[in-house]
Amino acid sequence: MEKTKEQLLKEIKEFEDKRKQEIQQDDIKMKQKGFTHKTDFWIHPIAGGDDYQQTLFSIGEPTSTRISNILKKSAVKTDYRTIKL
Q1: Which of 21, 35, 40, 56 is close enough to 30 for a disulfide, judged by CB 3.0 to 4.6 Å?
Q2: d(CA 78, CA 72)
Q3: Phi and psi for 41 in degrees, rounded to 5?
C-alpha cells in the first residue's frame, strides 16, 4: 500500500521535529561543558561527490584561520553559520 502525500508530509515533519530536538539537546550539553559558540559548515568537496555537514563547537567565536582550515577541502568557502549558544 502506497502512502499518501499527507502521510509522507506528516512523517517528514515528525522526523524534522525529532532531529531539531536532538540538535537542541546536543547544544545544551555542549554549553554545559563550557562551549560558547557553534559553527555549522557545509563542505562541497573540490573533487566532487556528495556535500556533507561538519559542526565545530568552540569557546569564543572561531577565528578566520580556523574556519579557513575547515573549509580547505570545500569548493565553497562561505557556506557556514556561527551561532552563540
Answers
A1: 35
A2: 11
A3: -115, 145
Alpha-carbon gap, residue 50 to 53, rounded angstroms: 10
Distance CA 26, CA 73 (A): 26
69: its cell numbers: 582550515
pTM of the model: 0.82
Using one digit for the tens of pLDDT, what is the confidence trace for 43-83? 999 999 999 999 999 999 999 999 999 999 999 999 999 99
User: What are the residue boundaries of the structural domains of the chain, listed by start?
Assistant: 1-33, 34-85
Q: Let me know: does 32 contact 70? Beta carbons within 8 Å.
A: no
